[in-house]
C-alpha cells in the first residue's frame, strides 16, 4: 500500500487533452505466444485520448498548419479517413474550435461513423468499390469539398511529412526507452505509412540492425497486390503514399482478412485485450516472424486501436458467419459445394460491359440459370458485385427484341443475388432460396461461388442415400 503522505508538490492535472497524447505502455503477450522463444510485446495505442495511434499525427499536422497559416481561426478541416484519423483530428478541432468534415468509405464500421459524429464532425460516406479518380470516391469527394468550402484545410495524411515526423519524435523514442534499447523487431500495419516510417527512422538511427516488418492486408499494394479486395479497416492501400518510405522496411507480411479477424478475436479472448482488425493483422504478422526468433529477440507490435469500434463486425458472430469467416452449423454451405464436383470454377460471373450474348453462352456452357455481374477480376470484393442476370428474364427480352443480345449486360441486369456465408447452415441457404433463385457464397469475406436450388437438392439426395 502506498504512503498517503508521499504526495507530489502540486496536483497532476493536464491542462489540455492534447497533452495526454502518447506515452502509451508496452504489454507482453503471454498466451497467443505460447511455444515461442522470443518476447512479443504490444504497444497499446488505444490508450491515447482518441483511442488510436492517429492522435499523434493529427496533433502534429494541425499545429504545423497553424504555424504555416494554412489553418486559421474559424477554418474547416476536411479529410478522407477510415475513422481513427478523423477522431484524432476531431479532438484537436474540439480543443481549437475548428469545424470538421470527414469523408469515409462504406466499409467503415457504423460505430466509427457515429463516433465521429459524437465529436461534432460531419461525415460523408462514399462507395469503396470505385476507382480513386471516380467522382464518387472518397478522394474525389474530399477534393470537391476542399474547393467549395472557404477556409478549408486538408491535412492529407498520405502526403504530409508531419505524419511520420510525429512518430519519429514520439512513438519511436518511447519504444526505444521502454525496451531499454533491446528491441530487435518492430511490426506495424501499413496504411498511410506514417507510423512505420517514422518509428523506423528513429529506431534505425539508434540501432541500424533493427528489423522493421510491415503487416499488410492481402490485396494491398504494399505486399504486391492491386489494392483490392480486403475488409480490414485502416491499413492497406491502392496507391503509394509519399508518407511511406519502403527503403526502411525490411519485410512485408501479407495477412488475410480471415487471419486478421480471427487473431483479433483470439487476442481479445486469450489475453483480455480488446483489439481491432488491423491490430489482428499486426499480431498475426508478428507471430509469423517470431516463429524463427530466439530468446534474445524482442518483438514490439504496434496495436493501433481498440476493438470497440468493430463490435458490430468482427466481434459479431452473425456478421462473421455471413461473410464466411466462421462455421456455425454441423451441415453447412461448404458441405454442399464439396458435393458439387470439380468441373465448375469456384465463381462464374460476367462483367457489366460483356454482351448479353456472352452471358447467355456462359450460362449455357455451365448449365446455370443465374449469373452475378461484377466488375474487376478474381478475387472479388462483395461490394464489386453490381447485379445479376436471369436466364428466364433474358429469354423473354430477347424474344421481344433480338437486338438485346448485343447490348451490354449492365443494361439488362437485375439486383444482386443474396449472399450466404460458406460456414452457415444449409438451413440458412434453404431459407434464402425460398425467395431467391440463387445465392452468392462468401468465403473469407469474398465471393466464392454461386449456389442454386439444384445444388441443395443434389446434396440432400446424396445425404439421404
Quick overview of this protein structure:
The chain is built from 14 helices and 15 strands. With 465 residues, it is α/β, with parallel strands linked by helices. Strand 14 and strand 15 form a beta hairpin.
How would you describe the overall organization of this protein?
- With 465 residues, this protein is α/β, with parallel strands linked by helices.
- The protein has three domains: 17-50 and 165-310, Rossmann fold (3-Layer(aba) Sandwich); 55-153, 3-Layer(aba) Sandwich (Rossmann fold), CATH 3.40.50.1100; 325-464, CBS-domain (Roll), CATH 3.10.580.
- The chain is built from 14 helices and 15 strands.
- The protein has helices spanning 55-67, 84-96, 110-118, 138-148, 162-178, 194-206, 257-271, 277-290, 317-322, 333-338, 356-366, 391-400, 426-433, 453-464; strands at residues 26-28, 39-44, 76-80, 99-105, 122-126, 152-153, 185-189, 211-217, 251-255, 298-303, 370-374, 385-390, 419-421, 438-443, 446-452.
- The strands form four sheets. Strands 1-2-10-7-8-9 form a six-stranded mixed beta sheet. The protein has a four-stranded parallel beta sheet with strand order 5-4-3-6, sandwiched between helices.
- The protein is globular and about 85 Å long.
- The model has no long low-confidence stretch (mean pLDDT 93).
Keyword list:
465 residues; alpha/beta; Rossmann fold; CBS-domain; four-stranded parallel sheet; 14 helices; 15 strands; 34% helix; globular
Topology (SSEs and partners):
Elements: E1 26-28, E2 39-44, H1 55-67, E3 76-80, H2 84-96, E4 99-105, H3 110-118, E5 122-126, H4 138-148, E6 152-153, H5 162-178, E7 185-189, H6 194-206, E8 211-217, E9 251-255, H7 257-271, H8 277-290, E10 298-303, H9 317-322, H10 333-338, H11 356-366, E11 370-374, E12 385-390, H12 391-400, E13 419-421, H13 426-433, E14 438-443, E15 446-452, H14 453-464
Parallel strand pairs: 2-10, 3-4, 3-6, 4-5, 7-8, 7-10, 8-9, 13-14
Antiparallel strand pairs: 1-2, 11-12, 14-15
Helix pairs in contact: 1-2, 1-5, 5-6, 7-8
Amino acid at each position: 500500500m502506498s504512503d498517503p503522505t508521499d504526495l507530489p508538490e502540486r496536483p497532476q492535472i493536464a491542462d489540455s487533452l492534447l497533452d495526454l497524447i502518447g506515452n502509451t505502455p508496452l504489454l507482453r503477450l503471454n498466451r497467443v505466444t505460447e511455444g515461442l522463444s522470443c518476447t512479443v510485446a504490444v504497444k497499446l495505442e488505444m490508450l491515447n485520448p482518441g483511442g488510436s495511434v492517429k492522435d499523434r499525427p493529427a496533433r502534429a499536422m494541425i499545429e504545423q498548419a497553424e504555424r504555416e497559416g494554412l489553418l486559421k481561426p474559424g477554418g474547416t478541416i476536411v479529410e478522407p479517413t477510415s475513422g481513427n484519423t478523423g477522431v484524432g483530428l476531431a479532438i484537436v478541432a474540439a480543443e481549437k474550435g475548428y469545424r470538421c468534415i470527414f469523408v469515409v468509405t462504406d466499409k467503415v464500421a457504423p460505430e466509427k461513423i457515429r463516433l465521429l459524429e459524437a465529436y461534432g464532425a460531419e461525415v460523408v460516406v462514399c462507395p469503396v468499390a470505385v476507382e480513386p479518380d471516380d467522382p464518387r470516391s472518397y478522394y474525389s469527394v474530399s477534393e470537391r469539398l476542399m474547393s467549395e468550402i472557404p477556409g478549408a484545410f486538408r491535412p492529407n495524411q498520405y502526403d504530409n511529412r508531419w505524419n511520420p515526423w510525429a512518430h519519429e519524435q514520439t512513438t519511436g523514442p518511447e519504444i526505444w526507452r521502454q525496451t531499454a534499447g533491446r528491441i530487435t523487431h518492430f511490426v506495424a500495419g501499413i496504411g498511410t505509412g506514417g507510423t512505420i516510417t517514422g518509428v523506423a527512422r528513429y529506431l534505425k538511427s539508434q540501432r541500424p540492425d533493427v528489423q522493421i516488418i510491415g503487416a499488410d492486408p492481402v490485396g494491398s499494394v504494399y505486399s504486391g497486390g492491386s489494392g483490392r479486395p480486403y475488409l480490414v479497416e485502416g491499413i492497406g492501400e491502392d496507391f503509394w503514399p509519399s508518407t511511406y518510405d519502403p527503403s526502411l522496411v525490411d519485410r512485408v507480411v501479407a495477412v488475410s482478412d480471415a487471419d486478421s479477424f480471427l487473431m483479433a478475436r483470439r487476442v481479445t479472448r486469450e489475453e483480455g485485450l480488446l483489439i481491432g482488425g488491423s491490430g489482428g493483422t499486426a499480431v498475426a504478422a508478428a507471430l509469423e516472424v517470431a516463429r524463427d526468433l530466439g530468446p534474445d529477440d524482442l518483438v514490439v507490435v504496434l496495436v493501433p486501436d481498440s476493438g470497440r469500434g468493430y463490435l458490430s463486425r468482427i466481434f459479431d458472430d452473425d456478421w462473421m458467419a455471413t461473410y464466411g469467416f466462421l462455421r456455425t452449423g454441423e451441415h453447412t454451405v461448404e458441405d454442399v459445394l464439396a458435393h458439387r464436383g470439380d468441373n465448375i470454377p469456384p465463381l462464374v460471373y460476367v462483367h457489366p460491359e460483356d454482351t448479353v450474348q456472352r452471358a447467355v453462352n456462359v450460362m449455357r456452357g455451365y448449365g446455370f440459370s443465374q449469373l452475378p455481374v461484377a466488375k474487376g477480376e478474381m478475387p472479388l470484393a462483395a461490394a464489386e458485385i453490381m447485379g445479376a442476370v436471369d436466364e428466364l428474364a433474358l429469354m423473354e427480352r430477347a424474344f421481344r427484341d433480338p437486338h438485346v443480345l448485343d447490348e451490354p449486360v449492365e443494361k439488362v441486369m437485375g439486383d444482386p443475388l443474396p449472399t450466404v456465408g460458406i460456414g452457415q447452415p444449409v438451413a440458412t441457404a434453404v431459407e434464402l432460396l425460398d425467395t431467391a433463385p440463387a445465392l452468392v457464397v462468401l468465403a473469407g469475406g469474398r465471393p466464392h461461388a454461386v449456389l442454386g436450388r439444384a445444388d441443395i437438392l443434389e446434396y440432400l439426395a446424396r445425404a439421404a442415400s
